[in-house]
Amino acid sequence: MELNVHLRRSQNQSYTIHLGSGSVSVLDVEFERFAETHGVALISDRNVYALYGSKLERSIRKRFSHILTLLVPAGERSKSRWRKASIEDAMIREELGRDSLVIALGGGVVGDLAGYVAATYLRGLPYVQVPTTLLAQVDSSIGGKVAINTKAGKNLVGAFHQPVAVLADIDFLSTLPKRQFLSGLSELIKHGIIADRHLFEQLEENLDRILDMDVASLTQALYRSMAVKAKVVQKDEKEGGLRKILNWGHTLGHAVEALSNYRLLHGECVSIGMALEARLCRHLGWLSRQDEQREILLLQRAGLPIQLPAGISGHEVVKKTQIDKKARAGHVRYLVHDKIGSMSSVDGTYTVQIPSSEVLACLS
Ligand code: NAD
After folding, report:
1. Probe ligand 1: pick from 47, 156, 229, max atoms within 8 Å of CB?
2. Residue closest to 127 by CA, chosen among 37, 196, 243
3. Residue 80: pLDDT band with limits 50, 70, 90
4. pLDDT tens-digit readout, 234-280
5. 116 in Cβ contact with 147 (< 8 Å)
6. What is the dihedral of CA 164, 210, 107, 335, to 10 degrees?
7. What is the rounded CA–CA span in Å between residue 282 and residue 276?
8. Could you tell me which of 141, 299, 138 has the C-alpha nearest to residue 219?
9. 153 DSSP β-pair partners
């Protein structure tokens, strides 16, 4: 199965997402476009490399003799300035030039880190995303947002740099720990809630099959979910307006993620954020109680959290949102969600400033 991401700004930035069982083998076909490429930097984390690295390396070696494999420890901490610099130093030592290609093999952490290295190394190298988590397949590998974290917060330093191809092989998901799978499911459900009612209904109907890793149901859901992300990015590559809808659940979710000291996974926090933001939209009279309940029920059935964890108060969450990078002078804007599959905009603006007292009322 294939999906194309057409970016209007520049024809040569468009790329194909290959989805399906065994789709990583398409790498060979993609390589044909890189006849002039001499070096490859394969960036992965140690967990993923142990499972899939040598196989991928063998297929890269068939085409390119100069491969530099760079491994980082698994986990969010690897999205750091220090890791980025050490990867760049290794690439410089190996004399990887502008005729090099970066391949990111892993979840969102590796994709964001390797993508950001590719965005800045010698002012930009092409890179291929080979996402191995559900979250990375439906979300982070598509759209070109790449970043690292700083002590002050997540993704504070980054760029927009589109990949040249995305190879989403669902076979990778067979080894993914259940908790990580569910975390990715949260972003998949998000795409149904914000832009595709049919996807949402399919998920309601097929959730048990998806949780049992039924390949057909999973592929169908992944395809529709990726299509939502691709469509939004095509219309608004640099988050001038519409792309903001992808942040559904993230305003409160990011605050919870930071307050949990990153013990909770990203998708888990987004799930909590989506449940709470749905409650807020219902409280403000935008969303019906019935749609709110359906959304929360689906998250719950998927085994995702929907409430603030013990030890984190509504007050702390609201305070944290006020110092988020998206807040302006402490004023926080929230997305206007009006029904399943739709977000509302007023004059092209999808967010509205909400007083913290209203938000707090929904968090307690
Ligand atoms: P991750 O990359 O940390 O991967 C989760 C864990 O699963 C890691 O331990 C990894 O080693 C392991 N793993 C990966 N694939 C595996 C497989 N197939 N089998 C077994 N284990 C495997 O986490 P993630 O959830 O993929 O990504 C989270 C990151 O994505 C966060 O940093 C978040 O900010 C970022 N993100 C970025 C965007 C974007 O648009 N760029 C969007 C959403 C999230």
Report:
1. 47
2. 37
3. very high
4. 999 988 889 999 999 999 999 999 999 989 999 999 999 999 999 99
5. yes
6. 80
7. 10
8. 138
9. 150
